[in-house]
Amino acid sequence: MYASREDIGYDFGDDSKVRSKPIKPNPNIDGGWAWMIVLSSFLVHILIMGSQMALGILNMEWLEEFNQSRGLTAWVSSLSMGITLIVGPFIGLFISMCGCRTTAIIGGILNALGWTLSAYASNVHYLFLTFGVTAGIGSGMVYLPAVVMVGQYFQKRRALAQGLSTTGTGFGAFLMTALLKYLCTEFGWRNAMFIQGAISLNLCVCGALMRPLSPKELREKCVVRSDSEENRAKALSHSTETIKSNGVLGEEPEKKEEAANEEVLGSVQHVEIGGKSARGRSMYGLRLFKTVSQLTVTVRKGFALWYSSYFGAASLFTNRVFVAFIIWALFAYSSFVIPFIHLPEIVKQYNLSRQDNVFPLTSIIAIVHIFGKVILGIISDLPCISTWNVFLIANFTLVTCILTLPLMQTYIGLAVVCALIGFSSGYFSLMPVVTEDLVGTKHLANAYGIIICANGISALFGPPFAGWIYDITEKYDFSFYIAGLLYMVGIIFLLIQPCIQKKQPREKSTEEAQV
Question: What DSSP character marks residue 442?
């Protein structure tokens, strides 16, 4: 039901020439170091997404400390979550220029700095800058590379690999909820944030594990993928014609630019050799010039790829299903974030604190979320199962749970709904897979950056909106109802767009027959 990479016109050279030669499979694709990448991504999800899912604990501490409204205080958590995802397109530019490893290490330092500076907050507005912006940008610089690297290293078991790595969100939510609750009780919330900042430095280690694949290894993966998908049904043919008529994304400019870059570097090397024959004069200046030239080449190539993906003649936005995917993302993520931020307050309102202290509802979501991601990933990798259909069914289940949650006022009822929310939200592990099938591995970083940016906007405004509704009505019911209805609108866009895409080629062929 969704367009694969071939459907939207991305190709990776002449397949007939490549297939004529036997290609030895790369041991690092679907194995070897690929599992270290999964481990790195798993730890990133624990430290970033897991910590953000546990912010409900700190939100209650901030309410007591600063005596501000729920709507204003919720902006701290929302800024952190939202900016982590909103900066995705710009992080895609960093990845194109510097690579995933360097980007992730810098992000780890920024994230730790944000947590540490937040320990000295004197008001909520101070937290907006230190925790919301600084820690949020640092988180985004680590999160996107962690997802992209898994997509690069896996081909046959992509959904399972993404599922295993993103289970770190569930583990992290469970572990960080318990950890932050303990640290706040024993040391106070300020010292808890200081300790969490020290723990966050481990993100730099995770970034160091993200060893990049060589261009040759990437080409081998693309060839293997094209061989395995050549019998896949062709959907969305109108989108195919549109993209192919515009040409492959940035292919010709890249070739011309590479030729020009080789000439520049070649001339530098020639001058360097001449310098050696001239008694080594100005060797330092020549080497510096060569280094600057190589850096300039890298930056120009990265920016060209980033720019062509967003604004070129054959940009990602010409794929209509991808645009529908973006619209869905604008409404979806807030429905998952709102329960995590406001459930502790809802439990307190319903006088269920005693039961919740024994087994917190947020921990139920987190634990079941782990199994949901793995199980949905395994199901989606089955040859007879469509990843898109699994994705849609999980979305329908989640939106039903969001609309049902306000009707539950007992701990058992809330626990059952929270378990269903945790399992169905496991579809997050399928988002990179669906995105890669739509745009291809080459443009995964930029495309997924757009998707998580839309998710970030949803996460940014969702919790403050729920807090604002509560300040007016003194109930959270309407917050869940409105969030659920908006979520349903996004799902409808995903359902309608493929139908429109299928009808358009038929209408076009009918008109041609009449002519």
Answer: T
